[in-house]
Amino acid sequence: MHNGILYLAGQGLKDMMLPIIGSELIVNLIMTLICIVIIFLLVAVSALVFTYGERRICALIQVRIGPNRVGPQGLLQSTADMLKLLTKEDIIPVGIDRWMWVLSPILIFIPSAMIYALFPFDDGVIFADVNIGLFLLLAISSQSVLPFLMGGYASNSKYSMLGGMRTVAQMLAYEVPMVISLLGIVMITGSLKMSAIVEAQSNVWFIFLQPLAFLIYMTTALVESNRPPFNIVEGESEIIAGPFTEYTGMRWALFFLAEFANLLSIGILTSVLFLGGWQGPDFLPTQLWFWIKAFFMVIVYQWIGWTFPRLRIDTMLNFGWKVLLPLALINLLLTGIGIYVVNAL
Amino acid sequence: MAQTEKFVLNMGPQHPSTHGVLQVQVELDGENIAGAKPVMGYLHRGIEKLMESKTYAQCVPLTDKLDYVSAMNNNLGFCLAVEKLAGIEVPERAQFIRVICAELNRIASHHVFIGSLTNDLGSATGMIYAFRDREKILDLFNIICGARMSCHYPRIGGVAADAQEEFFKLTQEFIDYVPQMLDEYDKLFAGNEIFQARMKNTSIISRKDALRFGMSGPNLRASGVEYDIRKIDKYSSYDKFDFDIPVGTTGDNWDRYMVRINEIKESAKIIQQAMDNMPDGPFMAKVPKMFKPPKGEAYHRVENTRGELGFYIVSDGTTKPYRVHIRRPSFINLQALDHMCKGMLLADAVTAFATIDPLMGEVDC
Question: Nearest CA to B84 among B235, B217, B230?
């Protein structure tokens, strides 16, 4: 029996609608639509909140004040920015591959929003608790490389092209260690189901059982979401903005939105996979624990990003293939030995 | 059949990391650099020619705009050249105040170096820490001469106004803060693994090449040549101060960074000595209102923040110089860019450019 606040609220809504509408099928359909709307709202609102949050946190790290003029404490700054981006002229450069160029910012948003369907937000609250949850999640998130390459190729700009090529190189180097590092969790849990992974952490969080995997995952997650110090795809001092160089206004804002959706999703994913997800001591509701952990991880990622200089591409690829991959394999081996020993005892 | 070919990438004149309006035509083979050609002239204002139509006193503020982050050193260089031409003896107090200002400006200029370098390496945080500390020096300049960047404080024959007690007090406070400041930089940059990986053994200039390019200043010293005009020419009573010349060993980006960090320490040492031994007396020599140096020519060089800054002035006996030529260190140092970039990666071009530390105002003049 689940007892998360969100689960109970959803169940209550369902019970209320059932006598009015009558058919369980239609009620389920309505509930699905509501969930989709909530997830999209979550992504959009989190982008607004994070733009503000990131700027204030980064200002704190950089001994400055940050936006504090628009609205109380500058809270409306990101809204103002969004309005500005919406009203900007839509510049379409000459000599581009029109279809690919237009599709790229739309496509980039899809995988970023899609993986939210696989997050266990609360006890029993998960949009699609499929058997291959973790696998599907990694598969979807790795799709984001394609729109980057499309945007880079279609822009007809050398900076964009370099950025697009860099995306592919770094994705190859970091996807593999990421997947292998997460295999340890799957071995312990014995399931790829996201809800099962969270429940397996009811006694001890995986960060204590898999500390090495945690560090590898943190590094690769930063690469996956193009956060500094691994933001070579859009390294502003070298290749201006990589694949986004030629985009303006709302098209650029979609890239931006996807980036913040990715930041939140790696925060959530780290807390779900390693920090026990929504589980925590009883004095706070489970829903609150979920968000505390997710936001804590987001702040940690931002903190890392605003402290370190950017890596050079060759160092970065070497690090992925020659350091992280062997470490991930060692982690896999150690986990196997550990499980064998525990079972034998 | 797959084919690869080199392509030319135009970095600049509008690019986030060319610190102004420089265009670099980078020839790329994938991410590897086959050549880098700096194209300059976007900021040319014809300062040398402008000086021919201005009186000597009016020329001094023009030098502010050469290397606009170390204006004091430029003013000093020009004034010293004119004083040499006219045979003016500058009072000792003025010489000491000039030294304090020049060294403060050297520190401020190195702050800009650290700031822009770390920003180019992708850590915007570093820039803001360096600029926060530079602000303290600019405030000191504000107190002593009313301007923050275009100082125009050293004048022909001395300095514009006597330094006040408040200036010395706040300068002392800044000097006491320097060790703590450098400690913070060491923790944030030099101690960082990524920073070291980007800086060490990249864009090496050997001792021989550095001399061949005619480089000067911290860039030359990083390659292991102990060459400092302050020690050689001993102008403006630099012989009265005890300081070392920091030199590097390999001439890579890391050495160029460390030489500058150590120079900040040495500058602080010089300022401390100048303040402790500050003589009394006038701050200005007797220079006639209608200043006409005798017919002749003079060359004087100073150790600017970026290297050897020389002024060659020809006088025809009137109130205006007949011809002025400026040896700009940034312009000459920049010629090494191609040599530094060859065989490196695109990201290194940005680092190489930042560690040469050219200032476009001085390159284009």
Answer: B235
